[in-house]
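Structure in, sequence out. Go:
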């Protein structure tokens, strides 16, 4: 018996955009995410260009609050300021892209009808 995998939602935080649609639209326009390094002091580093993600804030409000589990408050932010300080920057991107993909999927309204074991997430970081 073959098992099927269905991609229901997509999310992305990249040097081309802070969402999957912004990234795709900028790629179609031929824009580049490469530029002068601004996020840290270069010191003696001979490299001065990179593809940085600029302007992303994991503590910003989510576009749409997620339905809470019974007895829990609605989730309105990917991370609090306190929690964000404890995480690596790549985790901020994973949270943002993950919440975007979940929101894009439309699964929030079906969460009580789908077994959690049937939902997964594939994350790529480079």
């Amino acid at each position: 018996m073959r098992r099927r995998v269905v991609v229901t939602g997509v999310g992305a935080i990249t040097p081309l955009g802070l969402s999957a649609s912004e990234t795709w639209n900028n790629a179609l326009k031929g824009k580049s995410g490469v530029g002068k390094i601004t996020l840290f002091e270069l010191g003696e580093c001979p490299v001065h260009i990179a593809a940085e993600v600029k302007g992303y804030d994991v503590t910003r409000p989510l576009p749409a609050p997620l339905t809470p589990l019974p007895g829990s408050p609605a989730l309105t932010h990917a991370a609090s300021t306190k929690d964000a300080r404890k995480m690596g920057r790549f985790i901020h991107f994973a949270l943002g892209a993950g919440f975007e993909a979940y929101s894009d999927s439309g699964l929030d309204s079906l969460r009580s009808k789908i077994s959690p074991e049937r939902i997964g997430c594939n994350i790529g970081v480079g």
